[in-house]
Design brief:
This protein has 610 residues and is of the alpha/beta class. The chain has helices at residues 83-101, 117-125, 130-147, 161-176, 231-240, 248-259, 288-292, 295-298, 309-314, 329-342, 374-381, 383-393, 404-434, 442-445, 450-467, 471-492, 494-500, 502-525, 531-540, 545-549, and strands at residues 8-9, 68-76, 106-113, 154-157, 180-190, 195-197, 216-225, 245-246, 265-266, 268-269, 277-278, 281-286, 321-325, 351-354, 356-359, 400-402, 579-580, 594-595, 608-609. Helix content is 41%, strand content 14%. Helix 15 (450-467) packs antiparallel against helix 16, helix 15 (450-467) packs parallel to helix 18 and helix 16 (471-492) runs antiparallel to helix 18 (502-525). 46% of the residues are buried. It is an enzyme of class 6 (ligase).
Length: 610
Amino acid sequence: MAVARMNMNCSIQSSLSCILKPSYFFNFKATQFKNRLYFPQNHLISSKRSLLCTCSGNFQAGEKAEPFVITTPLYYVNAPPHMGSAYSTIAADAIARFQRLLGKRVVLITGTDEHGEKIATAASACGSSPREHCDVISQAYKMLWKDLDIAYDKFIRTTDPKHEAIVEEFYSRVLAKDDIYRADYEGLYCVNCEEYKDEKELLENNCCPTHLKPCVPRKEDNYFFALSKYQKPLEEILEQNPDFVQPSYRLNEVQGWIKNGLRDFSISRAAVEWGIPVPNDNKQTIYVWFDALLGYLSALLEDKEQISLQSAVSSGWPASLHLIGKDILRFHAVYWPAMLMSAELSLPKMVFGHGFLTKDGMKMGKSLGNTIEPNELVHKFGADAVRYFFLREVEFGSDGDYSEERFVNIVNAHLANTIGNLLNRTLGLLKKNCQSTLVVDSTIAAEGKDFKDTVEELVEKARINYENLSLSSACEAVLEIGNAGNLYMDKHQPWSLFKQGGAASEAAAKDLVVILEAMRIIAIALSPVAPSLCRQIYAQLGYSEDQFDNINWSETRWGGLKGGQVMAQPKPVFARIEQIKENENGAEAAPQKVVKKKEKKQKVQGVIEA
């Protein structure tokens, strides 16, 4: 067990305890926790209203539908963005884009976590102030998100004044529930995690299992949150609502932590100056997690709106999905729900913890020089290639591996060959034989053909997988449409039919319409994953930018292309990625685009969040 000692201190900021006295008390009973996916319109909870309940039938005619709110982690700005944070955000963006295609009002929240000991240390090492450091790194995230085609709606910084105001109000609300008290704490502290650790969870020499660095003894007089008070309610939530934490094996982890007993945790730091001061005690700052988690709420505030928890809640809370790396699962699936219950606010509808990324089958570490730099990757290969590879090749939720050779092979085979080449050669045949004009409606062209049924089945499969957050399977289903199109082309050989003339030529012209209709459907169904590529496909099919920007999932139904439509002039929508390999003398073996140097494989230590 960790060396820990708490001494209660009766001076619990009594002057603040009267600021917020909730007029209702939350009654925790197992029967209250049902139907996790829906919440009442009013997310301030009374004793007569459950935390997790159905809102079915709650909306009157003309009421605004609840938004689909999805969040990435708020990324810690002690260092520039890495591939793990890029992966989280790419996945969140794909999910958000799919939900928009369904016609939902989507709010994608991302941002940066900018307080804490590590930030001040990193800034000092660079010779800058914490504020200057945060400005630079936060901007680096925004620039990377732009390069990766991330269409976020809200970008919150925890140094924003509105966020600090929300943290102070939330703290006061929890204090008024008698869930904050003052005590001494002595234990082993991981500076990188910014939390105290139990000895039983540490490795040899008291090393943190995540950062592989020794934890240091520390003793402080801090304020604590009464997490243990919420053990039973948390157990009931997870028992009655097993989808609250996903994938299911992450739920098992969370239930294991809770079963082992929850301990109150420190929510302030006496030795950290770079943070939000504790109300009425400017000698302490609020612990980074008790601060950062509230960014999901403060981000919802509109500009010039009254800054209050109530305003934030009415703007879209609770979140539909918190998307996080598995290393911060405890904070989101244990600490955060308990904090929200204390403040009498609704819980998020789902917490999804995805895995880590490895490189060439090995864990990554900066000291080994084998990390993946997202800026380098996107500038080298393009956003569509990066997005597609990680969403297609990493089973969402599990750990995944990157190698440049595999990256190039997958992207070339799927995007350049299966999809891009099919579109290009079909449009080429249409230009040569039909003046780039469709001869009939796609519905007529597909009459009596099984191909149409195959495409419709695969589109439905993709939709189901998107909704289940099975992003890799969704990509696979869409790719299968391309595979089916290539098989159709090879089977019917329209180039030969055109040479025969007459009825054969008419059949060939219809075949091209059938294949191009499949390409139109691919452009919609793959747009959450590869938006720029799909925009180009749509343009090649003769549609405008505005038409692409206003597509919805219902348009994946067969029959969009009409006779008389004129297609654009054919040109490649995705160029193959080539590699330069060096021979034994160091000379280039072939003049190609992407340089890949032989690297000596090393044994590895360290990990990067996926």
